[in-house]
Amino acid sequence: MELSNNQKRMLKALRSRPDETWGLDEVLAECGWDDQAHVAGAGLGLAENGLVGIEASKTTVWSLGPEGTAALENGLLEQRLWDWLEGQNTDTRSMKDLQNSEVASKQESGIGVGLLKGLGCALDKGAFVLPELTDAAIVTLVARKSFLEQCVNGAGESDLDAELLAHFRKRKGLIESTEGTTRTWSLTDAGRRLNDSTLEERLQVVQITPELLQGEEWREADFKPYDVELDAPIPAGGRPHPMMALTERIRSIFLEMGFDEIDGDFVQTAGWNMDALFIPQDHPAREMQDTFYLTNPEKIDIAQNFLDDWTAIHERGGETGSTGWGGSFSEDESKKGLLRTHTTVNTVRYLAETPDVPCRVFGIGRVFRKETLDRTHLPEFHQIEGIIMEPGASLPMLVTTLKTFYEKMGYPEVRVRPAYFPYTEPSLEVEVKWRGQWLELGGAGIFRPEVTEPLGCKWPVCAWGMGLERLAMLVLGLDDIRQLYISDLEWLRNQPLL
Ligand code: PHE
Asked: DSSP assignment, residue 92?
């Protein structure tokens, strides 16, 4: 049988008067403890070993109410009033004087009068008169205070003075009762018979410190084993928002795959956002109800050579061999200011600037669409965009690049399906398998000549654009996209580190 030091000490205490039944206070005193948890813990351990018997009985326990705590801090109301009265002259002891003083609030002075009368004071023509003999009142005041002190840590009803208890029960908020259990402890025969030598307290090492190791005592000590299965608090420190962390991870994957990062403005023209991508000017996605057009700036200038090229391409296919969309191209429509609806505008503008330098670039940016907010849609979201322009850039290269990216993200099962975008041919939809289901995460393809010719691109261009929040939903296992942005601290704290 392994007894803890506390158990040994308590057992020794009980053995000092082996036939006694011990109450809490006696055990505390004999063991030299002030925490009743020691008694409860050690007592229980001893009982489990059959050395001590425990008797439990239900009792009412009285402790301080909020007013009682305040009274111990500031003095009981009757004490404060009494002190005030003693300090006043006979002609400044009226009810009015009391109300004007700061001893008691208006409400308190009403109750206070009753309390003072209880202490033997009288009211004579509106002025207080102290009793002739003050001893009894002072005794009462002291008794009341020590009654409250008794209740600070909870006192069993049978230990309290019945008269004072009856008094305080009638007053509001001073004391309150709970049903509790009182225990007594007594030795069993096994406890009596135990050999004294087993009760030697040994040094128990809970924590290894430099001081401990400098001495010799530890050589004989008992080491308390760590319980690695105990629940431990989860530290809640500052950390990046999951979207920041995810963005950072995606960024490092593309950088490690040899891509450079590019950026662009939220405010763009319809020309660069759409016309440069050969999106017809009467395309439904260009309508007011889908795109945020700006009133300021309503129009933004575009270099005339691009407007001319797009006119030729859109109306007749330009020099590309395409027939174009027909109709007539509007430069005014092209100059309209809007919030970019995809980040493809960034890669296209990048190509326009350096069409004759091979490149692998990516960008992660915010886009805007007039979507109704729901489980899977946000009017502002982010795209992961990228292009490869180099000699021999091809569809297999594009597919391999995307597969590699998702594999590095932890989604090895990727498939592509035919799709349609006005600016790519062929066009792909990228899908990732998640929990047994194929989920669409983005679009990709090879830019059409109608896009690359006016820009002056020297080589084929692989291009893709994928939803960041969609990917975040997979990574974090969400079924509502809005969860990402509602600043739910509890949820944020519980997110994995990405
Ligand atoms: N811009 C497309 C979208 O917003 C994605 C895409 C980018 C498709 C590049 C093909 C090529 O969904």
From this structure: G
What's 196's DSSP letter? G
- Beta bridge partners, 53, equal 186
74-79 average pLDDT score: 94
**Residue tagged 């991508």 (tokens):** 277
Residue 355 main-chain phi, psi, to 5 deg? -70, -15
The whole-model pTM stands at 0.60
**How many whole angstroms separate alpha carbon 262 and alpha carbon 463?**
14
**The pLDDT value given to residue 456:** 96
- Cα 40 from Cα 186, distance rounded (Å): 13
Pocket test for ligand 1, best of 421, 447, 462 (most atoms within 8 A of CB): 421
Three-state DSSP class for residue 483: helix
- Kindly give the number of the ligand 1 atom that is closest to the alpha carbon of 347: 9
Cβ contacts of 452 within 8 Å, gap of 6 or more: 351, 460, 461
What residue has token string 């990574």?
Answer: 475
pLDDT at 374: 94
Indicate the helix (H) or strand (E) that contains 5. Answer: helix 5-16
Q: Give the separation between CA 430 and CA 16, rounded to whole angstroms.
A: 82
Contact yes or no for 362/259 (Cβ under 8 A): yes
130-144: pLDDT as tens digits:
898 889 999 999 999
- Pick the closest to residue 388 from 407, 410, 405 (CA basis): 405
By three-state DSSP, how is residue 313 classified? Answer: helix
Indicate the top mutation candidate among 339, 341, 342, 343 to test ligand 1's pocket, ranked by most ligand atoms within 8 A of CB. Answer: 342
Tens digits of per-residue pLDDT, 369-414?
Answer: 999 999 999 999 999 999 999 999 999 999 999 999 999 999 999 9
> How far does the centroid of ligand 1 lie from the alpha carbon of residue 442, in Å?
7
CA angle 80, 82, 83 (to 5 degrees): 65
206 φ, ψ (degrees, to nearest 5): -100, -30
Instruction: Find the mean pLDDT for residues 270-281.
Output: 98
Asked whether 363 lines ligand 1 (CB < 6 A), one says no
Amino acid at 466: M
Taking the C-alpha atoms of residue 107 and residue 390, their distance in angstroms, rounded to an integer, is 87
Rounded percentage of the chain residues whose pLDDT exceeds 70: 100
Residue 1 has pLDDT above 80, yes or no: no
